[in-house]
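Quick start: what a row looks like.
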Amino acid sequence: MADPMPYFAASAVSSVMTFPLWKAAAIGQSGYALKAKSVFGRLSEAAMPPYRGSLVVVSGRAWAQAAIFFGSDEGSRWLRMQGWNTALSSSLPPLVISANVQIANQPFVRSSIMLQGDPQVSFAQRSSSPTFAVIRHLWKTEGAGSLWLGTGVGILRTVPKYVTAVVAKDFMEDFLPSAHAGSSTILRSAMKSVAASLVGAVLTNPLDVLQNEMYKSGQGVLPTLQRLRLAEGRRWLLRGCGSNAFASAMPMALTIFLTDAFTQWRHNSVF
């Protein structure tokens, strides 16, 4: 059995380093105001305080990514030992694990995104635990079910993102030539990480926008789609895509890359 510690260490470091990217994407996709016009300007602005809900966001993303990648690697290895083919062995574990992770994290995802600029929860900014203040507010005003608003869309966007990442990672692992020199090992790991994370982040951007808009309005999928179509036409499909390409792809890429690094370091190998 693989050692889970490199996965959790890599995911924790990745989540801390990329919190500003997540913040910029959440604000941009939700339509909250950022003054800067360029992608890098908005990222710089988002990197500045306040860091509302940062502890919940970082810890939630850390355990989620670690569970998905570690569970997927171990699940894939076990399925292959049982005689399953490569495609199912690579895709089934991340599909099941990421869906359950999304359900578990959903109340914290919604409350954390609303904290980034939604005026209806401005009161929570004065709370010592703003994320839980938003959760209590939603529970009292809209009922417990509101905490899982957008779960279906969240699963539709999160599951393909991680399934794509894991399948691409496994493919690149087999496709790339084995490396023994230190520099070649680093390059190989970097190529695998980028390829595994970027495609899924871009493809699922419209679902990110849809989910964030549902949080703002409290509406279901169809009314939100209709409102976006009437207000923005097809432009909403690309809203926040630049920030999201960084915010979604970078944490996964860093997690995959650092997992390789920490695994080799833990086994006293030269990286």
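That is the whole record. The chain has eleven helices and no strands. The radius of gyration is 19 Å.
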